[in-house]
Amino acid sequence: MKIDGKHYRSIELNENGWSVRIFDQRKLPWELVFVELTSRDQAATAIREMWTRGAPLLAATGAYGLCLALRADPSDENLKRSYDLLLATRPTAVNLRWALDEVMNAVKNLPADKRAAAAYVRTGEICDEDVEINRNIGLNGLPIIRDFAKKNPGHPVNILTHCNAGWLATVDYGTITSPIYMAHDEGIPVHVWVDETRPRNQGASLTAFELAQHGVPHTVIADNAGGLLMQRGQVDLCIVGTDRVVRNGDVCNKIGTYLKALAAYDNNIPFYIALPYPTIDYTLEKGEDIPIEERSAEEVTHIEGKNQAGKIEKIKITQSPAANPAFDITPARYVTGYITERGLLDHIPERVTPQAKKAV
Ligand code: MRU
Fold first, then answer.
1. What three-state secondary structure class fits 352?
2. Strands across the sheet containing 20-23
3. Which of 194, 241, 285, 292 has the highest Cβ tally under 10 A?
4. Which residues line ligand 1 at a C-beta cut-off of 6 Å?
5. Atom of ligand 1 nearest to the CA of 163
């Protein structure tokens, strides 16, 4: 993905081969701030405080956090303590647990002095695989957009999305943005309705920023506007990402996703979920079993933006107590299809094994 014409991954090793470069996503779209992660605790803070976020990117950051931990102290005790500490940073996106398990399995039977190097190798693979998965999600989602374009020649395909499941939520490409970028690149007119996604505004700050960087026409809307646009025929399809999908196909994603799925269902609008295989949690049967992160009330009572003098400022918008459940569950019955690296699926298959490179 490019910013001002320069290609970046959302997370990368620095040239020294061990410290990790991320963007401080709290500063976007106003400033491009790079952060160097040099310790496990810093990686944990970056996840907890959402300098970095999005299910696949949490996986990559957590895995690098374990690398940094092992570089400092490769003992059994530190491996276990660091795994637990990183896992506790954010509870809902299952990709974090998946990646920590991957690294744990790659190192736990090795002698201590070999662990850090093996952890870096496995984490590098996780990152490369994420890029390949998202490219394949793009290839598998592209025909859906092409079909809409064929049905209505000369008109843009209007896609509604929620939160940020773009390249800033992954290592590259994004999940929902991958087919959109491919469609745009092959000349299909697309237009994206971007839910602002209160309380943290990942849509307005991150998805809109990404789409602008790629030159994709888009419009930011208040979270409550989508239903009306659907009733008016201004939305052709919805595509959202997910933090965890369980065996029965229920989908956990950023708070507000469920309401969009209901509105789409009522208006006969297809509602697609884009996801990589590490987002599937085979240990859980149904959506209500997924732990829903409760975040600070301050994310609701306050809002941040640029003031008229051009300074970033946080202001209070209510004096009342607030609640902040960060995710919701969309039941499988409202999902039209799952766009995966293996293809477009109408249900969650029994077991998905890594196939990114063979998918298409
Ligand atoms: O709280 P966030 O910003 O980490 O939530 C992100 C989302 O809900 C994304 O839609 C999801 O992680 C999918 S990212 C490909």
1. coil
2. 11-13, 20-23, 34-37
3. 241
4. 53-56, 93, 163, 165, 169-170, 175, 202, 241-243, 253-254, 326
5. 10
| Residue 267 domain flag | yes
The residue to mutate among 28, 47, 53, 133, having the most atoms of ligand 1 within 8 angstroms of its beta carbon, is 53
User: Is residue 358's pLDDT more than 50?
Assistant: no
Enumerate the active-site residues.
Answer: 243
pTM recorded for the entire structure: 0.96
Look at residue 357 and tell me whether its pLDDT is greater than 60. Answer: no
Q: Which two tokens stand for residue 193?
A: 């309705």
Task: Grade residue 230 by pLDDT with cuts at 50, 70 and 90.
Answer: very high
Domain with 125, as residue range(s), is 2-129
Sign of the alpha-carbon dihedral angle for 74, 76, 77, 78: positive
Mean pLDDT estimate for the chain: 96
pLDDT value for 124: 98
**Ligand 1 center to 76 CA (angstroms):** 32
| CATH classification of the domain holding 307 | 3.40.50.10470
**Average pLDDT in the 199-220 region?**
98
pLDDT of residue 355: 57
Does residue 110 sit in the same domain as residue 174? Answer: no
Is 98 inside a domain boundary? yes
Dist. CA 202 → ligand 1 center (Å): 9
148 and 105 housed in the same domain = no
- Give the pLDDT mean for 108-133: 98
54: region left, alpha or beta (phi > 0 left; psi from -120 to 50 alpha): left
- If asked whether residues 108 and 175 sit together in one domain, one would say no
136 vs 164: CA distance, rounded Å: 19
> How many folded domains does the chain comprise?
2
Distance from the alpha carbon of residue 77 to the mean position of ligand 1, in angstroms: 31
